[in-house]
């Protein structure tokens, strides 16, 4: 018998201890990078790649043997195995967040817990990261690592359907199944990779978590699973043993160096992700060489196998331990001693989770005997994992609604600053303030209606930004335009507009002050240009914009570019409400209150001195005012920071939800004062 015949096969159709060990090494390195470097590493990409390699190989073997593919059975057994450990870690993490962290962490954690169990956490994170207005609760979510497992779960649902359809078409056309699948997965790989490269360059924060930009990594694993048997049949394994040993070590070395040489978080998942996937492919191509100094021998040792056994559980538990510990310690990164303790704790918990939950369910003969039993376990896990966070989320929201019902009496907010204010006779002196710190991050002003008809923007730049609170087809129109700070102030305008029969159009872009020609950034400049064109087209009856800007450096300046825009608006008969910018606080009020109490003096900083002086645009406003159409200056900083002190609570209402934004609740309580000031400055609700 020849050496070629005696050499072990490396195809995907057998148990591969080196693959199992590679998975363990990949996750182990992810843990090390997370804990001590504060960076991420391509090990997650390797994990996704290997998952598709195994999945595709399994289905191809069934298809070529003319056996039923049974996707339902695959889904049942797969999610029966994946969901129970996920649920245990998710509920334990949620319990730790509620017990150990401040209330402002709770609502995001509840959404994350449901997203993690429901296999959609990557989309939850995309929504939060893209949403400029999402609360920054200090540090990453303890559930953030579930993004990759959610993408994996979604692919595990999609891939069997794609394979089933392709196999059916191939059999009908009398085409070889493996060749048809190779064409399909190559097309998926190419399309997803092109989109990944483009999206990573255009919106990397979104691309990192996007299933569509990651699909090519799974497709690459599938393509390798389809090609590898052919490659194995065409070579004499023994004759190439030295080359295969070298390939294995090159692959492992490339994996180790990837996280050191590449900013994975800042560059992935574009073409650079080919690095870790190519490295993993080299290890798989090397296969089982039988050489005592080979990578496959090292990856097949007992320590590597044990690490592979607990790799899933290790990935689940290490991130919540790390993020919660750092939050409690007030650190951005773990010291060597703290990191070592966290890694040891993660290994122990991963071993316990594997022994107590993963292995008993995965190896259960009773549960594996019938797909419906496995499916029942998966469904039960979903119910157990989703019900508690959903119930507690609804409890917090119901609690908030109950408090809102008594807001007029118990939470007057800025109304208490009116010299004629008198407390409500039914006031509860012990009522909690609104919004609670647990829900402060949700207290944003929102306008649900989309702009349609004559109010619809023609520029795609504004398509997702334009919203309207409509008062009818022929109602006067006020446009609120600017950044998220303008959004929050508009909470005082919306009820007034509804009372006087005006429609309000909102064009808010987080982080972008409306400042034509200011050259702030390409995105903000494009927004301002499109917004200015919209105003020229729609010709609203009034525009609300900020004519001053309080810089992060603590200087109040005139908003650039308005010296041309405002005269153009006035010339077309549009009233201009010129808002003075509001302070940027040195502390985050909700966090400060949780840590120090409502009455702590360090939670009530003085208003920045520039905002107590005459507003810098006074002369410009005076020069422009005097025509038939007024420009109406308004300043509410004495409401936000009365007597020069920015108290966190006024009238039993939380004034600010973070360092930069007043709460929607407090903005609404300013409406009477804002109405009086608008009228006093010459604004006309009747047009």
> Order of strands across the biggest sheet?
1-2-4-3-5-8-9
Number of strands: 11
Provide the low-confidence segments as ranges.
Answer: 1-13
Number of helices: 28
- Count up the domains: 2
Question: Which whole number gives the mean pLDDT?
Answer: 87
Spatial shape: elongated
Helix content: 55-70%
Secondary-structure-based class equals alpha/beta
Instruction: Note the main sheet.
Output: 7 strands, mixed
Distance between the termini: 98 Å
How much strand content do the residues show? 5-15%
Radius of gyration, taken over Cα atoms and rounded to an integer in Å: 30 Å
Describe the structure.
The chain has 28 helices and 11 strands. It folds into 2 domains: 385 residues, no CATH class; 178 residues, Rossmann fold (3-Layer(aba) Sandwich), CATH 3.40.50. By secondary structure, it is α/β, with parallel strands linked by helices. The protein is elongated and about 90 Å long. Helix 4 runs antiparallel to helix 7 and helix 10 runs antiparallel to helix 12.
TL;DR?
The protein has 687 residues and is α/β, with parallel strands linked by helices. The chain has helices at 3-6, 17-37, 43-64, 71-100, 106-117, 121-130, 146-173, 177-207, 211-233, 241-261, 264-267, 274-286, 295-299, 302-309, 311-329, 336-362, 365-369, 371-405, 407-410, 484-489, 494-500, 522-538, 562-571, 589-596, 618-624, 637-640, 664-669, 671-680; strands at residues 449-450, 466-469, 477-482, 503-508, 542-546, 548-550, 556-558, 575-579, 631-634, 649-650, 653-654. The strands form 3 sheets. Strands 1-2-4-3-5-8-9 form a 7-stranded mixed sheet, sandwiched between helices. Strands 6-7 form a two-stranded antiparallel ribbon. Strands 10-11 form a two-stranded antiparallel ribbon.
């Amino acid at each position: 018998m020849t050496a070629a015949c005696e050499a072990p096969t490396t195809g995907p159709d057998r148990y591969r201890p080196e693959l199992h060990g590679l998975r363990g090494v990949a996750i182990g390195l992810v843990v090390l990078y997370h804990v001590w470097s504060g960076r991420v590493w391509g090990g997650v990409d390797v994990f996704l790649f290997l998952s598709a390699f195994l999945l595709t190989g399994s289905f191809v073997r069934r298809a070529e043997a003319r056996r039923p593919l049974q996707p339902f059975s695959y889904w049942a057994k797969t999610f029966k195995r994946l969901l129970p450990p996920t649920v245990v870690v998710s509920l334990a993490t949620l319990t730790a967040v509620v017990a150990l962290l401040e209330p402002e962490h709770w609502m995001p954690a509840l959404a994350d817990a449901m997203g993690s169990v429901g296999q959609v956490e990557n989309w939850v994170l995309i929504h939060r990261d893209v949403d400029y207005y999402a609360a920054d609760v200090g540090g990453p979510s303890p559930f953030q690592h579930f993004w990759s497992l959610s993408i994996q779960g979604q692919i595990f649902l999609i891939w069997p359907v794609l394979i089933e359809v392709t196999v059916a078409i191939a059999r009908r056309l009398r085409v070889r199944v493996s060749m048809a699948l190779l064409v399909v997965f190559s097309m998926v790989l190419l399309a997803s990779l092109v989109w990944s490269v483009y999206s990573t360059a255009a919106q990397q924060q979104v691309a990192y978590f996007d299933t569509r930009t990651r699909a090519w990594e799974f497709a690459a694993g599938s393509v390798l699973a389809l090609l590898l048997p052919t490659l194995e049949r065409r070579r004499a394994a023994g004759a190439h043993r030295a080359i295969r040993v070298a390939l294995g070590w090159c692959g492992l070395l490339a994996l180790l160096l990837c996280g050191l040489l590449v900013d994975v978080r800042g560059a992935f998942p574009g073409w650079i992700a080919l690095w870790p996937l190519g490295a993993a492919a080299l290890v798989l191509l090397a296969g089982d060489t039988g050489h005592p100094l080979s990578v496959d021998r090292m990856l097949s040792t007992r320590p590597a196998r044990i690490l592979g056994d607990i790799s899933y559980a290790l990935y689940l538990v290490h991130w919540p331990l790390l993020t919660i510990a750092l939050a409690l310690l007030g650190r951005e990164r773990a010291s060597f001693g703290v990191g070592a303790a966290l890694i040891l704790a993660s290994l122990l918990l991963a071993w316990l989770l594997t022994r107590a939950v993963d292995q008993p369910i995965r190896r259960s003969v009773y549960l594996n005997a019938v797909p419906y039993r496995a499916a029942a376990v998966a469904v039960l896990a979903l119910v157990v994992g989703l019900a508690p966070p959903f119930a507690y989320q609804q409890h917090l929201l119901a609690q908030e609604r109950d408090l809102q019902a008594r807001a007029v009496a118990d939470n007057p907010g800025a109304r208490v600053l009116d010299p004629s204010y008198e407390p409500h006779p039914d006031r509860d002196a012990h009522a909690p303030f609104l919004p609670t710190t647990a829900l402060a991050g949700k207290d944003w002003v929102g306008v649900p209606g989309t702009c349609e008809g004559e109010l619809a923007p023609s520029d795609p730049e504004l398509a997702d930004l334009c919203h309207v609170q409509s008062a009818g087809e022929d109602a006067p129109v006020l446009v609120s335009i600017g950044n998220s700070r303008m959004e929050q102030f508009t909470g005082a305008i919306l009820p007034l507009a509804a009372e006087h029969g005006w429609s309000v159009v909102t064009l808010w872009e987080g982080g972008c002050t409306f400042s034509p020609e200011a050259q702030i950034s390409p995105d903000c400049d494009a927004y301002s240009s499109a917004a200015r064109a919209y105003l020229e087209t729609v010709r609203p009856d009034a525009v609300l914009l900020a004519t001053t800007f309080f810089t992060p450096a603590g200087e109040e300046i005139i908003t650039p570019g308005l010296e041309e825009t405002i005269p153009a608006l006035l010339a077309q008969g549009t009233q201009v409400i010129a808002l003075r910018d509001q302070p940027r606080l040195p502390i985050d009020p909700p966090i400060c209150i949780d840590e120090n109490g409502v009455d702590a003096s360090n939670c009530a900083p003085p208003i920045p001195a520039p905002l107590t002086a005459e507003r810098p645009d006074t002369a410009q406003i005076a020069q422009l005012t005097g025509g038939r159409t007024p420009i109406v200056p308004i300043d509410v900083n004495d409401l936000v920071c009365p007597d020069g002190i920015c108290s966190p609570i006024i009238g039993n209402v939380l004034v600010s939800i973070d360092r930069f934004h007043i709460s929607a609740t407090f903005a609404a309580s300013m409406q009477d004062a804002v109405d009086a000031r608008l009228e006093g400055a010459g604004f006309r609700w009747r047009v």
